[in-house]
Amino acid sequence: MVDVKVPLVPNYAQTQPEIANIVIIGGGIMGMSTAWHLASRGVKGIVVLEQHEVGRGSSAKPMGGVRANFSDPMNVILGKRSLDTFRTWKEDFGTNIELAKVGYLFLARTEEEVANLEEATKTQNDLGVNSSMISPEQVAEVNPFIDPKAILAGSLSPDDGYACPAAAVAGYMRAAIAMGVTVMDHTEVLDIATSGGAIESVTTQRGVIRTEQIVCAAGAWSAKIGEMAGHTLPVEPVRRMIGLTTQMPQAHPTVPFTLDLSTTMYMHNYYNGMLLGISHPQEPGFNRDYSFEWLDAFNSAAKIFAPTLQNPQLDSGWAGFYENTPDRNAIIGASDRVAGFYYCTGFSGHGFLQGPAAGEFMADIIQGRESFLPHDGYSTSRFEQELNSVIEKNII
Fold first, then answer.
1. Which N-terminal residues, if any, form the signal peptide (predicted)?
2. What predicted TM-score, i.e. pTM, was given to this entire model?
């Protein structure tokens, strides 16, 4: 099994630089992906600041889904481009992310959900994603836990799956450090100074770093960083919990990463056990304590369409944060208020799977390069007008 608690590298920087070209706040998948993409292009003077341990925030979960089966075209593009990176990860970065290409399966139990999945599947197909609508009987064939009488249809994307986020962060970090990036863990940002509407410096408990460019990749903690810089980042931390069942002598049947749109229950294999969860009621705030209170909602959902999963025997669990935005889409862009302030955050539960492409996109924006998406595609400016963007439907 992947031990996500082992130190990712032994050689964090011990002395904080006094000057930096770019300071990236946040040492998760977004911060490290951005750092690596910039460094691989020859950018020098990059400093990554992490308030806790690198890869131990929202990127610390034991396994994270990787997929391109979204309803929003830009999310499809980010997911598909990131999947291309994950498929050759071990060869390119030297860490084993344990990529399991088991597929992704969304379940529909209302006519509206069926229509939404049909529309999303067409969008995905138009953008080159291998996905299709399948019947309840076909759903039961690929996932025997599901009662076909309880659903109307499913959407299956067989090229998707899951992997280990902490191992991906480790790979990016090792490669970035090798190219001269300075990584500071246990380093908390206390203040950001501006002058004349532009970034001037960052203050941590270790001292001041003079810089003209900052990237906020702080995940659930991003709103505070935005406030320091003078640019509102509408990101709200929301606690989410999962359970890991007892490891059995023999593995369960291999099933796709399966999500039910109505109940928000989800499941996939975890070695010889199962990873189980549900998007339990919203719990804003920074409480990361784990409890079993989500099991009542999970059991109620399982009773409807996966009855054999009721009352699971759990060995362990995990609590972490979604970093939600109002429309459940990421915010990536350059501030139009504070020169030199950039942001790559607010991924609302699908950050890991978009991390490689999001970091590339962020690097393109910083360098003013033409990119695979319009630079303002994920800008916070969309929240300052009447919201025209459609909320992503293929999420829970």
1. none
2. 0.94
Give residue for tokens 């109002």. Answer: 326
pLDDT tens for 311-321 read: 999 999 988 88
Contacts of 322 (CB under 8 A, 6+ apart): 58, 220, 237, 238, 240, 348, 349
Of 156, 155, 165, 220, the closest CA to residue 25 belongs to 220
Domains identified in the chain and CATH numbers: 22-61+165-235+327-383 (3.50.50.60), 104-158+238-323 (3.30.9.10)
By residue count, the chain amounts to 396
**How remote is the C-alpha of 291 from its chain's centroid?**
22
Q: What is the C-alpha separation between 22 and 14, in angstroms, rounded?
A: 18
Q: List all residues 6 or more positions away from 9 whose beta carbon is below 8 Å from its beta carbon.
A: 170, 173, 174, 177, 183
